[in-house]
Amino acid sequence: MDRLEWSSVELLEREPGLEPLIASGVRCHGGFDADGRYRSPRTSHRMPAIAAWQARLATDGHALLSIPDSLLPPHHPNVAQARLLLLEGVREPIVRALTMISIVEGFGAIIRDVPVPDLASLVREPIEGTALAHLSGGLFEAHARDEAGHKDEGGHKQMWEAARDLALDSPKIPSDILMRMMGGARARTRRERLFPRLDETLEDMLATMVNVLVIEVFARGTFDWGETLLSDPEISARPKEAGAMVGYIRADEAPHVEYLRTALSEVRARTLRTVDGGDGELLEGRIVVDALLHRALEFTTRQRPQEQRNATRTSITSSLEKVADAARVRSLLERFDALETPFSPSEKTGFEAAE
Amino acid sequence: MSLGLLARFPSLSHAYRTTRAATTAASVWGMYKVPEFVRKRLGRPEPKSLGETHERAAKKILDLALELRGVNIKMCQVMSTRSDVFPPEFVRTLKLCHDAVPPHEFEVVRAVVERELGKPIGEVFAEFDATPLAAASLAQVHRARLRDGRQVAVKVQYPDIEDIVAVDLKNMARICRVYERFDPQPMPLLPLVREMTEHLALELDFVREVDNAERIRAIFAGDTTVAIPVVHREWSTQRIITMELVEGIKITDVEGLRAAGLDLGHVVNALMSVYVRMIMAAGFFQADPHPGNVFVRPDGQVVVMDFGLCKELPDGFGLGLFELMFSMMTMNESAMIRAFTELGFRTKTGDTTTFIELAKRMLRRSGTGRFEGEFTEGMTDELFEAVRENPVVEIPTHFVLVGRVFSLLSGIAHTLGHRANVLAAMGVG
Predict the structure, then answer these.
(1) What is the residue range of B413's domain?
(2) Higher pLDDT, B96 or B359
(3) Using a CB-CB distance cutoff of 8 angstroms, which residues of chain A are in contact with residue B319?
(4) CA distance to partner chain B, nearest, from residue A331 (Å)
C-alpha cells in the first residue's frame, strides 16, 4: 500500500525550480515546469497522499462520495447574457461579479480557522492513515493558502482579480460591492444543529467541510463560465492570458474537492461517539454526513440560484439605468431574459436516505 | 466659586473658565518641566518612567473637566480614546469621564424644552420624567410620554452650551499654541483641538443628528435584526430631539441577556453584523458604540442609539479596509503596503516599508502572529502606540475613528465571552 502518513511540512511543500506565474504584476502561486506545463502549488506530496487515502478507502470496501453534475445550476448570468451586456457597454455587472468571485475565493482561507476536535476520541474506529487525520496537519492550511495566497504569493483571490483585469483592462471596481455582498440585510445566523447529541465542534467542522465541498463542486460552472467568457476575443482585451488564468485556478481546485470528499467518505465509513459517551451511544457517520450534505444541496440548488438571480438582476438594472434611457433598459433586459438557461432543480439530492 | 452663580454673569463665568483652564494647564506643564529643569541643572539621569507624573497630571485634568463640564469632558473623552497620542495613564484615568457626568437640574431642562417647542411642556408631553435616563457632556435624556400616548425619549441640550463650547475651545487652542511654542518637543495637541472643534459643531447640531438617525435607519430598512429609533421631527429642534423610546437590555449586561434566554454568541454576531454593514458596506456609521448606546431586545434585535457622532467614509474605504485585513491575514507585505496607502496612511519620508512594521506591531498581539478577523483593543493600542513612537507615520482620522469603533466592539464581544470577528460578520461565502 502507498504511503498514508504525511507531515504538514510535506503537504505544504512546493515544487522546486518552477518558472513563477506572474499576473498583472502580482506573483501568484503555482508555476511552469520545464515543459511549460502549469503545476498547481503544494501538490507534489498532497496529490499522491490523497490518491493513497482514496485507494485505501476502496480497498476497505467503502465508496467515495460524489455529488452528481445533474444537480449543478447554470451560472447566472450565463456566457451569452454576459457577452450581451459587455458588447452593449454595460460592464459594471460583470466587473462586480468577477470581483465578488475573487472575494469569495479569498474567504476560503477561513477554513484554516475551523476548529478540529480530538477526532481519535470522537470516532470509534481508528483514523490513522486517513485524510481525516491530516485535516489540521496540513490539508486545511494548504487549502487556505491556495485560496487567499500566502505571504507575497497571490492565491485564487489575486488570480481572479488578474483574470478580470487582463480581460477587461483593469476596470474601475464599483464601490458598492461589499454592500451587495452583505446585501441580504440580515445578521448571519448560526447554523441550526442537526445532531445535538454529537460533539458541537465536530458537527461544526463537518458542516463547514460539507458546505465548502458543495461550493467547490458547484464552482465548476463558474470556471466554465469564466474561462469561456474571458477568452472570447470579442469582449476580452487579453483573451489568451485571461482564459488561461481561470484554467490555472480550476486546476488548483482539484485537490480541494478530492481531499474533502475523501475525508467525508472516511467519516461515512465510521461511527461517531455522542456526547453521552460510551460505545452504546453511537451515530453512523453516513447518517450525519448525508444529512449535512442534503441540507447544503437543498439550499444550493433551490434557494441560492433564485437569490443569485435576484442579486444579478438588481446589479444589472442599477448599472443599466446609469447608461441608458428607460426604453433601452427595457429592450436590453428583454434580450437578456431571452438568453436565460432554463433550470429546474432536481427533485432529489441523492442524500435523502439519512432523513 | 459656584458655577451656578457665575452662570448668571456670562462674562465673569467666561473669565473664570479661562483662568481655571489656564492655571490647570500651567500646573500640568510644570509637573513635567520643573523636575526636568532641576534634573538638568544637577546633571542627574533621566527618570526611568514618568508613569506617576502622568497619573497626577491626568487626575488634575479630570478634576477640571468634571468641574467645568462641557467641552472639557468631551476633550477628556477624546483624549481617552487617543492612545496614539497620550500615554496609557492618561487614557486609563480620563476614561472615567464616560461614567461621571453629573446631570443638570430638571428646571434647567424644562426651560430648554419649553423655549425650543414654544409652549409649556405639558402641552406636548402627558408625562415627562424629571430624573434623566442618562447624562452626557452636551445633553441629557429624559423619558416622556406624548399626549397621544406614545412613549418617547427626549434628548435635551444644555443651555448656553454653544457659548461654553466656544469659550472652552478658544481657551484650549490658546493653551495648546502656547505649549507648542515653548515646549521643545511638544505633543501634537492642536490637531486634536481642531478635530474636536469639527466634531462638536456636528454634535451640537441636533437637526443634523436627526438626519443621521434617518440615514442609518435607511441602511437597515427591512432588516428585522436591527432597531433604530424613529425620530418625531415635529417635536425635535436644533436643541432637542424627541424619539421613539426603544428599551432593551444593555449590551454588556451578561446576566440580563442570559435571563432573557439570549445566546451571547448570536448577540455578538448580530452586533458585529450591524457595524460591519455600516462601516464596510454603507460607508456611513454611528461612531460611538459604547455600551450606553447599544441595547438588545429580548427577541435578539440590536438597538443602536445616539447619532450625534456619525462619520461618512471616503469612497472605497470598506474595500480598502477589507484588503488590509486580508493582507494581514495572509501576511502579504506588498498587499499590505498597497492597502495602507489606499486607506490614506502616509509617511513623511515616503518610505512605505514602515507600514510593514506597523502591521507587525499590531499582529504581535495576535496569538497566531497573523490577523484572525478581529481588531482587538490590544491591536489598535499597539498601532496607535507605534504611531506615537514613530511620528513619521500619519494615520487618516477616519481610520482612527474606525479603529476605535472596532476596538470598542471587541471590548463588548469579550465581555460577552466571544470574539468580534469582522471578516466573519461580513457573512461572505
Answers:
(1) 247-429
(2) B359
(3) 173, 175, 177-178
(4) 31
